[in-house]
Design a protein that fits this description.
ten-stranded mixed beta sheet, elongated, Rossmann fold, single chain, alpha/beta
């Protein structure tokens, strides 16, 4: 079973994520598991709550979930949707359910707002994107062009191969146009830089596999790289950004790279985030006959 996990709290951002997931699942023959987590703030709160209260709240949540699932059946009559209600910390329950149902992707609505939004990701988004074993799509902003053009920021780390393969999956299976982008670091000219050669090779590999691809390399400037990427995304009217949450090889579990953190926070379009483990899965898609003469898509 090819499952997509969609956590919902009945607020607008999670409902938008549900709509995106429905469209995605319908196009690609996936099933959806809707999850509502009844947050328990602590052991004492649960201890003093009566059993009747817990049953009543849980039943209300189940009814709302079934109603939500039934509302989309008219638009997507063949779509399979199941519902679950769990109790606990949202990010922990989301990750546990994702593993339990062998989810291929998680769709999250972005809820964080206010004066600190530029610095702080919402707790649930942060922890899920940090530790998810599968790709996470943080749904935000304009979703109309989702999947038409995808911006893929690249660097010189080893994880670029997995990031490129994920881009290849999207390009071949969802008809996306891939835009590779990076920034020269140091005083070297663009054409003499290693990242320029990396982008050229990546573009060639994607094109040889039938994916329409463009590349953009910015010269060094005082503008921060993540700002350049966000500006470029707006400039070309891209519908999604695909980032790695941190460099492959990090051994600690409480870090999202500053670049990815800013992209997820400040992007005006949905962001697909990949951990190193998530990028190995590629949504369970197997592609045969891949051309990879330059070794850009697979690690040797």
């Amino acid at each position: 079973m090819k499952n997509l996990l969609v956590p919902v709290d009945f607020r607008d951002p999670s409902l938008k994520a549900f709509r995106v997931a429905c469209r995605f699942a319908s196009d690609q023959n996936f099933s959806i598991v809707l999850l509502n987590v009844l947050e328990t703030p602590g052991l004492l709160a649960e201890f003093f709550a009566s059993g009747d209260d817990l049953v009543r709240i849980t039943d209300q949540a189940k009814d709302r979930m079934l109603e939500l699932a039934s509302r989309v059946k008219e638009e997507y009559p063949g779509l399979k949707i199941s519902t679950r209600v769990e109790r606990g910390k949202p990010h922990q329950e989301i990750l546990e359910v994702a593993e339990d149902i062998r989810a291929r992707m998680i769709f999250l609505g972005e809820n964080h707002q206010g004066s600190g939004a530029e610095q702080e990701l919402g707790t649930t988004v942060y922890h899920v994107t940090l530790k998810s074993p599968v790709p996470v799509l943080t749904v935000k902003g304009n979703i109309e062009k989702l999947g038409d053009k995808i911006v893929v920021p690249l660097d010189l780390t080893r994880s670029v191969r997995r990031q490129l393969f994920s881009a290849l999956v999207y390009g071949l299976n969802y008809g996306a146009e891939i835009h590779l982008v990076s920034v020269v670091i140091g005083g070297i000219s663009i054409k003499d830089s290693r990242i320029y050669q990396r982008l050229k090779a990546a573009k060639k590999s994607l094109e040889e596999n039938g994916v329409k691809c463009h590349m953009k390399l910015f010269e060094r400037s005082d503008t921060l790289p993540y700002i350049r990427v966000l500006e470029y995304t707006r400039e070309i009217g891209a519908g999604m950004i695909l980032v790695m949450t941190h460099e492959e090889g990090y051994t600690y579990d409480n870090y999202i790279g500053a670049f990815a953190h800013h992209i997820i926070n400040e992007s005006e379009v949905p962001v697909m985030s990949l951990t190193s483990s998530a990028s190995k899965k590629h949504f369970g898609v197997t592609i045969k006959g891949i051309v990879d003469p330059l070794g850009m898509l697979f690690a040797t």
